[in-house]
Amino acid sequence: MTVPLSILDLAIIGKGQTAAESLAGSVAMAQRxxxxxxxxxxxxEHHNMSSIASSATSVLxxxxxxxxxxIRLGAGGIMLPNHSPxxxxxxxxxxxxxxxxxxxxxxxxxxxxxQNTMRALxxxxxxxxxxxxxxxxxxxxxxxxxxxxxxEATPGKGTNVPLYILGSSLFGARLAAQLGLxxxxxxxxxxxxLQDAVAIYRREFKPSAQLAAPHVIAGxxxxxxxxxxxxxxxxxxxxxxxxxxxxxxGREFTDDEADLILDTPQGQHLAEMMTYSxxxxxxxxxxxxxxxxxxxxxxxLIVAHQxxxxxxxxxxxxxxxxxxxxxxx
Length: 329
Known about the structure:
By secondary structure, the protein is an alpha/beta fold. 45% of the residues lie in helices and 15% in strands. It has twelve helices and nine strands. It is globular. The model has no long low-confidence stretch (mean pLDDT 95).
């Protein structure tokens, strides 16, 4: 591989699986990623989704950090409008204090939920409008000086937890460039604006105390398996599960029903969300990722291993590492 590889762990709760089993799988994945030489593992904040176990993102990071030693761990990301900047500074300041040099903080402005869930979170629908100011306030708590006179984050102050701006539009690209922060594009589920956003970010980037030159992380799906047919079957199962997750309204579709829906405009939209997906044997996946890194003009790839079930995801993690030139711990 021409760029470093990281992992986005979606903490999926598969069919017949409990949340506890999903979280145990997240620990196992981070431990294996650490052994194999992946750069970092990130977890995303989602709410009211019965198939995703990473809702309490900072708690999950703490748990995984306690069961690993060296790999960087972080949020990819925290949906900052759901929280006060001080609260997040205290949480991630605590994580960095407990696990120095290992914690990342990616920030997004989407709700990570639907309208009813947003109300349950006591979230102000207008809070996303102050995202740039909230990022700066949060940064002040972690690096100093504070932007709110007389208010400090403890733990947090002086920890210098690195911030990353997450996005799937031109807004995040411009903000990351203006603030001189790394930019992570969610091309694993929102592919359309990838090249335009990266071009704007690189063109408008202003160096900062955290970052001297642009750094782009691009998301991409991976299903690596021992045979091409196995990989395609695993990928089809992922697409079928996404039909139930996003269109089922709590109902689980049969495989035949899911296949019919995949042929509809709604199903095609779900498939298009996964445009950037490397599916196949290890060599095929590696070649796809090399080309994708050039296409995205990325400095780093963050891979969502999409196979259903912990064993299949761990196998995908191992197969990719075996052909990517990663340096084992």
